[in-house]
Amino acid sequence: MPTKEKELDSFYQTFSFLLDADKEIKDQVLNHVTVAPIQKGNIIFNEGDECRQMAFILSGIVRVYKTAESGREITLYRLRSGDTCILTASCILSHANFPAIAIAEEDVEAALIPSHIFSNWINTYEVWRNYTFNLLSHRFSEIMAVLEEVAFRRLDIRIAKLILKLSANKQDDVKIKHQDIAMELGSSREVVSRILEQFAYENILVLKRGSIMIQDIDKLKSKIKQ
Using one digit for the tens of pLDDT, what is the confidence trace for 117-159? Predict the structure, then answer.
């Protein structure tokens, strides 16, 4: 199998909606899609950048987030294997600039499609059109959930929810710093630390350097129900 087709095989396996596509569509993919590595820590898009290509994530993690003038950050969503970015798709369709920041949190491998080609495929091929509108619908719901969390949920509830989510692999010791929680939830380190110290005082958590140990998971779950 030629090198290019071998690279694209992982693209088809990851984005299986293309597996049964007809020859014309697969020929287009062969001609226009390139697979490229993105090193950990690299900025993929800065706020205000032109969206010149659409990235389909084959491996690794990309964090998409917003920053305020104060320097605070809030995570909008993360992209993993099998994901692509709603904001990039929206920018390409509306000819707008990227409204957030996208950074590789791990080494990433991505299939890249030039924006004008991607736009043409949406207009031409139903399989691409259906995929894109399903993507927009799914990710829009995620962003609305983030906005709802920020606007209507107390920060202590959101912190408890995040720690429980990170401990979903049944490990009691969660490797995360106070600053990381603040960046994830759009708060300040000082406020996060005060809430975590209160949780520690209530014997819910044990705070360690660079990690948090869950001492009483039932009490932590009860925080979410308040």
Answer: 999 999 999 999 999 998 888 777 777 777 777 766 788 998 9
How far lies 201's CA from each of 147, 197, 216, in Å?
30, 6, 12
User: Whose structure tokens read 């049964």?
Assistant: 20
37 compared with 147, residue with greater pLDDT: 37
pTM to 2 decimal places = 0.73
Report the alpha-carbon distance of residue 51 to residue 154 in Å, rounded: 35
Asked if residues 114 and 141 have their Cβ atoms less than 8 Å apart, the reply is no
Contact 63, 78 (CB under 8 A): yes
pLDDT tens, position by position, 80-111: 999 999 899 999 999 999 999 999 999 999 99
CA 78 – CA 105 distance, rounded (Å)? 9
**What are the tokens at 107?**
């080494």
Residue 88 CA to residue 2 CA, distance in Å, equals 30
Q: Is 100 helix (H, G, I), strand (E, B) or coil?
A: coil
Residues 77 and 120: their CA atoms lie apart, in Å, by: 27
Tell me the two tokens of residue 42.
């690299």
Backbone phi, psi, residue 70, to 5° = -75, -10
Q: What sign does the dihedral 172-202-218-191 (CA atoms) show?
A: negative
Closest by CA to 135, choosing from 71, 70, 56, is 56
The H or E element that residue 191 is part of is helix 189-201
Contact 55/101 with Cβ under 8 angstroms?
Answer: no
